[in-house]
Amino acid sequence: MMVCEYKPGLEGIPAAQSSISYVDGQKGILEYRGIRIEELAEKSTFLETAYLLIWGELPSKEELEGFEHEVRYHRRIKYRIRDMMKCFPESGHPMDALQASAAALGLFYSLRDLHNPAYIRDSVVRLIATIPTMVAAFQLMRKGNDPVRPRDDLDYSSNFLYMLDEKEPDPLMARIFDICLILQVEHTMNASTFSARVTASTLTDPYAVVASAVGTLGGPLHGGANEEVIQMLEKIGSVENVRPYIEHCLETKSKIMGFGHRVYKVKDPRAIILQGLAEKLFEKFGYDKFYDIAQEMERVVGEKLGSKGIYPNIDFYSGLVYRKMGIPTDLFTPIFAIARVAGWLAHWKEQLAENRIFRPTQVYNGLHEVTYTPIDQR
Ligand code: CMC
C-alpha cells in the first residue's frame, strides 16, 4: 500500500474530483461551473445559481420557472416539525435547531431511492424550500410567536425576509440578500462540504447529509465566523481601538475573525462583492460606525499580516450586510446554511454518481502490547 505523508487538516490533499466550482486562491478567482461569481452576482438569482450547480448547466426559461414553482409550493413545513421545534429551548443556538430539524425531515421521507432521479429532485426541492422556513419558524417561536406562513407570491429571498418579521422587505434589501446567497452557495472542498460528501458516501439519505454539513458549518473557524465578526466589531467599539485590539490578538496568538483562508492568499473575491453590497445598503439606509471600524481593521490587518497572505474572507463583510438588514446576529450562520444547502446537494449528487465510501487511514502514534492494570492497582 502506498504510504502518504500525513498533512494536518488534509492541506493540499484532493478528496474528490469535482466539476462544481473552482478557486484560484492566488488570483482571487471563484467560478461556479466555469462562470465567474462576479457575473452570477450581477445577473443571476439564487435559485438559478442553485440549479446551475446541481444540474450542471444554466436552466432554460421553462426549466427555471418549473424549479421556482416547485420550490415555491414546497415551502411549508409539517406541523409536527413545527411542534418539535416549539419544544426546543429558546436559548439554544438556531444552528442546532436547524441541524435537528433537517435531520427530523428524514423521518418523514425515509424511503431511500438514491438511483431514482425523481427522488433526487424531490429531495433537492424539499430541502432548498423548507430550510428557510425552518430558520424563520425557530426565530419567531423562540420569541413566543407563531411562525409566519410562507407567501407564494413572493420570490425566494423576499419570502424568507418576510417570514422573519411579517413585513415585505425593501426590494433593494431583498435583491442584496439574494446576491449574498449566491456568494455563499458553494466553495469547493470546504469543511462542511467535505462532511456532506463523507456522509453521502455511506449512501445514507440526503437529510442526514445536510444535517451533518449544518453541524460542521456552525463552528467559528468555518461559517460561524460571520457571527463572531460582529461580536468582535462590537467589542472593539471604535476606530481608535482597532490597532490595540489587533496587536493584542497578534501578541496572544489569537485569530482575528473574518480574516485568513486556507486557499485564498489575496482578498476573497466574495468579500470584495460583499463590501460593495454593504456600501449600497449603507448609502440607502445610513452609515454606522461598524463599517468604519471594519475598514480600519482591513487596513491594519493588511499592514501586519498582508505579507502572510491574510486578508478579509467572506465572513468579514457578510455579517455587516446582514446586521444592516436588521437580522439577529445568531441567524447569520443559519443563513449561510440556507445558501450552502444547494452546494452540499450538488456535491451529494456528484458523490452518488461515482461513489466510493470514504475510508482514509491514520498515522497511529499510540502504544502497543500494553498489559491491563486491575482497577485497585491504578
Ligand atoms: N488571524 C491571525 N492570524 C491568522 C489568521 C487570523 N484570522 N488566520 C491565519 N493566521 C495565521 C496563523 O496564526 C498562522 O500563522 P503561523 O504560520 O505564524 O503560525 C498562519 O496564518 C496559518 O494559519 P492556519 O490557522 O494554519 O491556517 P488554516 O489554513 O489552517 O486556517 C482559517 C484557515 C480560515 C481557519 C484561519 O485563517 C482562521 O482561523 N481564520 C479566522 C476564522 C475565520 O474567519 N473563518 C472563516 C473562514 S472563510 C469561510 C468559511 O470557511 O466558512
Automatic annotation (TrEMBL):
It comes from the Bacteria. InterPro entries: 2-MeCitrate/Citrate_synth_II, Citrate_synth-like_lrg_a-sub, Citrate_synth-like_sm_a-sub, Citrate_synthase, Citrate_synthase_AS, Citrate_synthase_bac-typ, Citrate_synthase_sf. One of its GO terms (biological process) is tricarboxylic acid cycle. Pathway: Carbohydrate metabolism; tricarboxylic acid cycle. It catalyses: oxaloacetate + acetyl-CoA + H2O = citrate + CoA + H(+). One of its GO terms (cellular component) is cytosol. SUPFAM superfamilies: Citrate synthase. The active site is at residues 261, 315. Keywords: Acyltransferase, Transferase, Tricarboxylic acid cycle. One of its GO terms (molecular function) is citrate synthase activity. Gene3D superfamilies: Citrate Synthase, domain 1, Cytochrome P450-Terp, domain 2. Belongs to the citrate synthase family. This is Citrate synthase. It comes from Nostoc punctiforme (strain ATCC 29133 / PCC 73102).
